[in-house]
Amino acid sequence: ESLSTPSNTPETTRGMVQDPTQFDVLVMPNLYGDILSDLCAGLIGGLGVTPSGNIGANGVAIFESVHGTAPDIAGLDLANPTALLLSGVMMLRHMGLHDHAHKIQKACFDTIREKKVLTKDLGGNSKCSEFTADICRRVQDLD
Amino acid sequence: MESLGGPKWWQQASRSVSISASLSRVESPPARADATFKVTMLPGDGVGPELMTAVKDVFKAGDVPVEFDEFHLSEVQNMASEDKLEELLSSMKNNKVAIKGKIHTPMEFKGELASYEMRLRRKLDLFANVVHVNSLPGYSTRHNNLDLVIIREQTEGEYSSLEHESVPGVIECLKIITRAKSRRIAKFAFDYATKKGRNKVTAVHKANIMKLGDGLFLQCCAEVAQLYPKIKYENIIIDNCCMQLVQNPYQFDVLVMPNLYGNIIDNLAAGLVGGAGVVPGESYSAEYAVFETGARHPFAQAVGRNIANPTAMLLSAANMLRHLNLEYHSHMVSDAVKRVIKQGKVRTGDLGGYATSDEFTQAVIANLAV
């Protein structure tokens, strides 16, 4: 039993830090969303692994990763593609391509779970291309 | 800063000592003081009254020389009126120090945009809210050994209670940021950091979006920072700040921010060390000090069930005793609370235990080194 059901944003913030499993879907205005989405990204590993989508009317949508441009590692094959890849998965779902979305998401999660080819930000030593190649291999195996 | 110092001379006037002694600055008092300090008490709603009982019981057992002037002001219990507010204010003006629970703000709009809680803050000009985020020894959380101070401007900003519906279905809400109040809170933060020997002050804002409002706040913080060359000054955007707090809170020391962000960060930080039941807080004006919990939540679901955690209120009461220069009694209370938590045998539900509020309070009393 949740003794302290949050009834406003500050309490929700506290609840999110203490026991995020009490929440499922949250809807909120602009500023709170900005704050809470970053907070929750922090809880799951940061902006490098957090996907997002912007949905408009008539099916118009833009899916994007919300991390920075990381100029210090640009062009060095070191970046973690997870955030953008999972945003792509969201996009496939939006388009109704659920099978493809499921396969790619599973492959991505399995690669991360195995911990053999992780990029530096996830604690590994592999390159972006190696991480990606592993996911591609799994996707092909799943076919 | 005067409001952080010891008791004012007019508090000394209530002591039965000679005139010359009352006019001079008080030296460390003996373990048993000659007379009592008068403190205003406002139990508030929800579990407030239960927590106040815990404070009174512990003070009585520890022979603490404090006398409480109790007031009951509540919007939800229909005990709110202008007269009551005035009575409370005049008691505050006499005593200068208060301890309080939260006055619950009903969600429905009853014709007055500012809640009693806000109006009290404004009338007493309690502009600075300070929340101490300290990990409790013996109670493990994801991040241990935390020691943060969160300073929040709490009289303007998003809580200015200025809203209007210019067109049906379209509400405009005004967020007010003034140079005077921003400088005031920034100066408070740096003075606080100086007095407590802290190294860094970080301003939290969203000036990339609210360029004029938060931009002004940020500018004021930067200006005041220049007067304190020994203290490092940084700034961080509110969303990134929340993320950093859950990933690596150790990078922060003292944080200063406007109203809404302060409310959010107070609660977030309370969650990091164990929840609303363990974090003490206080509010200051130039003349008054009000001691309360850090995360202000009436916790209505717990009323009468004897399950609320008295830790936050007891630690805040201990801070109040330090403010009154009753160092010995302050340590006595806070040490007892920390000892009970460290032992881990008597813990309330929010910390994973099964004890009632009363059992916890009794355990604290048993641990008072009288």
TrEMBL record, chain A:
Residues 1-135 form the Isopropylmalate dehydrogenase-like domain. It catalyses: D-threo-isocitrate + NAD(+) = 2-oxoglutarate + CO2 + NADH. One of its GO terms (biological process) is tricarboxylic acid cycle. SUPFAM superfamilies: Isocitrate/Isopropylmalate dehydrogenase-like. Keywords: Oxidoreductase, Tricarboxylic acid cycle. InterPro entries: IsoCit/isopropylmalate_DH_CS, IsoPropMal-DH-like_dom. The keyword Chaperone does not apply. One of its GO terms (molecular function) is magnesium ion binding. GO terms for cellular component: mitochondrion. SMART domains: Iso_dh. Belongs to the isocitrate and isopropylmalate dehydrogenases family. Catalytic subunit of the enzyme which catalyzes the decarboxylation of isocitrate (ICT) into alpha-ketoglutarate. The heterodimer composed of the alpha (IDH3A) and beta (IDH3B) subunits and the heterodimer composed of the alpha (IDH3A) and gamma (IDH3G) subunits, have considerable basal activity but the full activity of the heterotetramer (containing two subunits of IDH3A, one of IDH3B and one of IDH3G) requires the assembly and cooperative function of both heterodimers. Heterooligomer of subunits alpha (IDH3A), beta (IDH3B), and gamma (IDH3G) in the apparent ratio of 2:1:1. The heterodimer containing one IDH3A and one IDH3B subunit and the heterodimer containing one IDH3A and one IDH3G subunit assemble into a heterotetramer (which contains two subunits of IDH3A, one of IDH3B and one of IDH3G) and further into the heterooctamer. This is Isocitrate dehydrogenase [NAD] subunit alpha, mitochondrial. It comes from Gouania willdenowi. The lineage of its organism: Eukaryota, Metazoa, Chordata, Craniata, Vertebrata. The gene is LOC114458440.
UniProtKB/TrEMBL annotation, chain B:
The keyword Mitochondrion applies. Keywords: Mitochondrion, Transit peptide, Tricarboxylic acid cycle. SUPFAM superfamilies: Isocitrate/Isopropylmalate dehydrogenase-like. InterPro entries: IsoCit/isopropylmalate_DH_CS, Isocitrate_DH_NAD, IsoPropMal-DH-like_dom. One of its GO terms (biological process) is tricarboxylic acid cycle. It is found in: Mitochondrion. GO terms for molecular function: magnesium ion binding; NAD binding; oxidoreductase activity, acting on the CH-OH group of donors, NAD or NADP as acceptor. Its main location: mitochondrion. GO terms for cellular component: mitochondrion. Residues 38-364 form the Isopropylmalate dehydrogenase-like domain. Belongs to the isocitrate and isopropylmalate dehydrogenases family. Heterooligomer of subunits alpha (IDH3A), beta (IDH3B), and gamma (IDH3G) in the apparent ratio of 2:1:1. The heterodimer containing one IDH3A and one IDH3B subunit and the heterodimer containing one IDH3A and one IDH3G subunit assemble into a heterotetramer (which contains two subunits of IDH3A, one of IDH3B and one of IDH3G) and further into the heterooctamer. Plays a structural role to facilitate the assembly and ensure the full activity of the enzyme catalyzing the decarboxylation of isocitrate (ICT) into alpha-ketoglutarate. The heterodimer composed of the alpha (IDH3A) and beta (IDH3B) subunits and the heterodimer composed of the alpha (IDH3A) and gamma (IDH3G) subunits, have considerable basal activity but the full activity of the heterotetramer (containing two subunits of IDH3A, one of IDH3B and one of IDH3G) requires the assembly and cooperative function of both heterodimers. This is Isocitrate dehydrogenase [NAD] subunit, mitochondrial. It comes from Gouania willdenowi (Blunt-snouted clingfish). The lineage of its organism: Eukaryota, Metazoa, Chordata, Craniata, Vertebrata. The gene is idh3b.
